[in-house]
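Morning F.,

Quick status update on the modeling queue. The single chain you submitted on Monday has been processed. Sequence for confirmation:
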Amino acid sequence: MRLRLLRRNVLVLLGVVLVVATLFVSTRVLIVSDDDQRGASDSGQIDVDFGAGVKFHPGLSQTVYNGNYKQLVHNADRFPGDPQLVLVVQVHNRPEYLRLLIKSLEKAAEVHSFLLIFSHDYISEEINAIVQGITFCKVLQIYFPFSTQLYPSEFPGQDPRDCPRDISKDDALKTKCLNAEHPDSYGHYREAFITQTKHHWWWKLHFVWERVYAMQGYSGFAIFLEEDNYILPDFFHFYKSMIEFRKNSCTDCDMMAVGNHNGLTDFTRLSNKVLTTSWMSTKHNIGMAISREVYYKLMGCSNEFCTYDDYNWDWTLQHLSGTCISKPLKVLVAQGSRVLHTGDCGLHRKENCRPEMALQKVEEGLRSAKDGLFPPSLVLNGAEAVEHKAHMKNGGWGDVRDHSLCNNYVTRL
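Structure tokens below.
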């Protein structure tokens, strides 16, 4: 019995070692030679042109690393100079919603001064064409190198030798599945498609602030969006107003939330209103503005983030605020949201998606809200207590392989 347990633990340990070894390559620069690219077999899989001669081939993850190394900024010749605002968009595989986001960006005032960074965990010709069709500002694409698309049948994807989600630990030990020793807090085993979002978010945060060449010397905030967001025309105007308000009236505000989840309800009345409070997952995870200083605070809590048993990055962040980060994160919040959520499909719902209905709803709301856009100044409408908000963790993040992979995004500097 002891020998069998030892063998299982060795298998898990080997998996962790392989991940760490692979990560050592991925978080540093990896150059794929032209000879390597010419030697890639054409087996009917998709090739996507990244520009500058860089091709994506799903069988060769090092080509993704090469894209992360070269970091071709599209439209840089049209819009020279440093960006005035950086938007980072996490993209999976919802092209219809991504089109809506880009449509809203195109209508935003002063968008030509933005740098848009699209962080992909799924590559397709359609998505690539949508992003590279942008002509109104500078665009950079980066690629999460440990996606389930690149690792469909091995960790960090779903290894066929992994334990089924709902098997009991006793039965898992008997069947000798790979991660039998490591269920989550509720007795469930990892599901790769569930864990990917948290991995991607943490990798992206690190990569943007540490690896993106175009961010070197940038002293502003990076605003984090998702592919099913939609921004209002005065997005940049309001962001600049929040920066000024923070400078004059909330110097201890760690973060800003340019959006909220109330949509356009009562927008005209709330358009120029802001409040201060402690950061909460369910309220402030849309249109998050993060500075380099706060990024360093979060990275100082990498182990806590990477081992906390919750598959949601935002609930994990709320846990850190007031625990590992001793002073709870204080956030300046827009009460009239400049970021809308259009997605009626996502991680837990895949069917009957209606992006055209979402667009119709947004456009109707904007017609009634247009008089509230571009307020001349902001008004503080509330200052709530800043305190740690404890919650019940959701599980889904008990596997030591996830912990190790997540931690190594930061340690491989």
